[in-house]
Structure formats: C-alpha cells, structure tokens
Amino acid sequence: MPVGLVIVSHSDALARGVVELLGQLAPDVRAEPAGGMAPGGLGTDFEATSAALAEADSGAGVVLLYDLGSARMTAELAVESLADPDAAAVAEAPLVEGAVAAAASAQGGEALKTVVDAAERAAGGIVESPEQATTAAEDTDSGTESPTTTSPRVEQELVLRNEVGLHARPAALLARALTGFDAEVTITAGENSADARSVLGVMGLGARQGDRIGLQATGPDAESALRRVTELADSDFEG
C-alpha cells in the first residue's frame, strides 16, 4: 500500500476539500482530514489528528501536512505520540501544493522520505523555459554515471484534445503513466517547460484544449515513454 497522508487544518471544510482533491489525483493513496474543533469551530484537535493518522497508516508510513503554525504543533505532537515516531513525518510544505505533490509521489509507490521530499519541493512547482531545460539536459549529458546520458533525445508534438487540457487530473494521470519508465520526459508549452513527472510543474504550464505541446525524452525507455504519453492524450486522458 502507498504512503498515507493526513491534512491538518484549522478548518474542517478545508481539510476535507484537500482530501477530496487528492482522491481525484491519487485514488490509491489513503488521505484523511483532521480539521477544525468539535462541534464545528476553527482550530486543531490532537485526538482527531491522532485518529486520522491511525486511519491513514496502511504500513508504509504517513506524511502530515498542515495549514498554520499551531496545526504544525498538533501534527508534530501526534507523530511524537506514536509507538514508532519514525513511521510518520510532518512535511514543511504549502498545504495544497505540498499535498498534491506528496499524493503523486505516494501514488507512484515512493517511500516515506521521498514523499516528504516531494511535498517540500512543491512550492509553486518548477517550470522553466525551454532554454533552461536544454541547458539542464546538456549538463546531465556531460556526466558518466546516469544510464540515460548516452541515449539520443526523442521528440514529438501533439495537440491537446481533451476538454480541460493539462489540468489537475490529466497532469496526475500523466505523471502516473510514466512510472516504471527509465526516461526523463519534458513537456513544453509555449515558452515554458516542465518535468512530466511533476504534477504541479505540468499544471503550471497552463496548457489548454487545442494547445500544441512538445515532448522531449531521453533514456533507454524514451520512445516507449513518449508512446505512452501519446496513447494517454489520444484517449483524452481517461487513463
């Protein structure tokens, strides 16, 4: 089972809203809300957070994300109260962006530390210009350790036909579709580009229905990875 998530918020509605979003992006990830104070007031509750932590734990660990300072204290106390505090971690990340990035990482089967790292790198996503992406690829190609460094670059263009373009759910489906491929895939839309495995980065491109996007891939599985992306686009990102 994937790493679980707990959303600790001063607002019950906010916590449940984030969990609802994650359910669409990462359906296999167990995410639990811990928001508000009984009976419906604003604040955070240690007992509710501990209960959510227990519900979210399927054996792979749990990452907790929070909205405001005192929610962090509640989350940390819940972790410290566990029989094995190393089984959970509080991520220092923006709540929504961090939760989306963490969910995508967990959906891909990543370990607890990797999911935490994904959340903490999620501040606004990483979107760069094609020139920056090219420079980064050239820097990578100058190394000798990566198995993708001697692989040719494969490129392709396609037009987005689905109604919402590369919005939240299609971006998550795209990231999941590349799981298992030994390839680095970059998507370019207009003057910006992003790592295809970064849900936030892909969403940040703002690619809409009818837009033409470019795909570039390097690595042993480059052709197969681009073929999978094309199949997904042809199915209107129905997964």
Automatic annotation (TrEMBL):
Reactions catalysed: dihydroxyacetone + phosphoenolpyruvate = dihydroxyacetone phosphate + pyruvate
Transferase listed as a keyword: yes
Keywords: Transferase
Pfam families associated with the record: EIIA-man (PF03610), PTS-HPr (PF00381)
Organism domain of life: Bacteria
Residue ranges constituting the HPr domain according to the UniProt record: 153-239
Signal peptide: none
Domain PTS EIIA type-4, chain residue ranges per copy: 2-126
GO molecular function list: phosphoenolpyruvate-glycerone phosphotransferase activity
Chain segments annotated as transmembrane: none
Biased composition (Polar residues): 131-153
Entry GO terms, CC: membrane
UniProt enzyme class: transferase
UniProt EC number: 2.7.1.121
GO BP: glycerol catabolic process; phosphoenolpyruvate-dependent sugar phosphotransferase system
Region spans: Disordered: 123-153
Subunit field text: Homodimer. The dihydroxyacetone kinase complex is composed of a homodimer of DhaM, a homodimer of DhaK and the subunit DhaL.
Known function: Component of the dihydroxyacetone kinase complex, which is responsible for the phosphoenolpyruvate (PEP)-dependent phosphorylation of dihydroxyacetone. DhaM serves as the phosphoryl donor. Is phosphorylated by phosphoenolpyruvate in an EI- and HPr-dependent reaction, and a phosphorelay system on histidine residues finally leads to phosphoryl transfer to DhaL and dihydroxyacetone.
Name of the protein in question: Phosphocarrier protein HPr
The organism of origin for this protein: Actinopolyspora mzabensis
Taxonomic lineage of the native organism: Bacteria, Bacillati, Actinomycetota, Actinomycetes, Actinopolysporales
